[in-house]
Design a protein that fits this description.
Blueprint lengths: L1 E9 L2 E4 L2 E5 L6 H9 L11 H11 L15 E7 L4 H12 L6 H4 L6 H10 L5 E5 L5 H13 L4 E9 L5 E9 L5 H16 L2
Parallel strand pairs: 4-5, 4-6
Antiparallel strand pairs: 1-2, 1-7, 2-3, 6-7
Helix pairs in contact: 1-2, 2-5, 6-7
Length: about 200
């Protein structure tokens, strides 16, 4: 298994393969600022929840690393996870009807975490399998083991993501693109565990 590329998005900035490409530390709306620096033309971005916004930015900068000959419509599968599900948006929706007495349909749409993978699939016209798991913490071995199952079934690429938005303000999106290779799964697992610690400055 091989890691083709990786990205990391948080309020402080956006990084690609370990290098800072969008510095948003001083921005009032960091993800909007990152999107504008990205130069993408996708107005739906502004309606997305924070999970989808981070995943959108992180995916857009990874697209050049997707193999040109890959059948992305069918052979790519998405494997995402986090700890708090869609709790951040859930709370905003609850506030919309408890405090404002006006339930927001635009928020309700995002009260499921797998909407993230749905948004990415719509944007890129990906029709393969996708899963979103709720885990206690990031575990690289869960991603690599499940990705290997997909490769054994015939998939050629796996876009994985740990995308988190907690009510305490913690927000991050760690994406990585995996492909089958002669390299063992254990090496990729160790590398991913190291990468997220580096991104988090742990």
């Amino acid at each position: 298994m091989k890691i083709l590329a990786h990205s990391y998005v948080c309020p402080d900035g956006t990084k690609l393969n370990g290098k800072l490409i969008f510095d948003t530390k001083a921005e009032e709306n960091p993800f909007k600022a990152a999107y504008q620096q990205l130069g993408a033309e996708y107005p739906k971005f502004y309606k997305m929840d924070v999970l989808s916004k981070m995943a959108f930015i992180g995916t857009e900068i990874l697209l050049p690393f997707f193999p040109e000959d890959a059948d992305l419509e069918n052979d790519l599968f998405l494997l995402f996870a986090n700890t708090s599900s869609s709790q951040y948006t859930d709370n905003l929706f609850v506030d919309s009807y408890e405090k404002l007495n006006n339930p927001s349909p635009s928020l309700f749409v995002y009260t499921l975490p797998n909407i993230v993978t749905g948004e990415l699939s719509i944007r890129n016209k990906w029709y393969g399998e996708n899963c979103f798991f709720i885990e206690e913490q990031f575990k690289a071995e869960n991603f690599t083991e499940l990705a290997q199952i997909g490769f054994n079934k015939g998939n050629t690429l796996c876009l994985c993501g740990w995308v988190e938005a907690k009510t305490n303000g913690e927000q991050e999106c760690f994406l990585f693109l995996l492909s089958p290779s002669n390299e063992d799964t254990h090496s990729a697992t160790i590398e991913l565990s190291t990468l997220i610690k580096q991104y988090r400055n742990e």
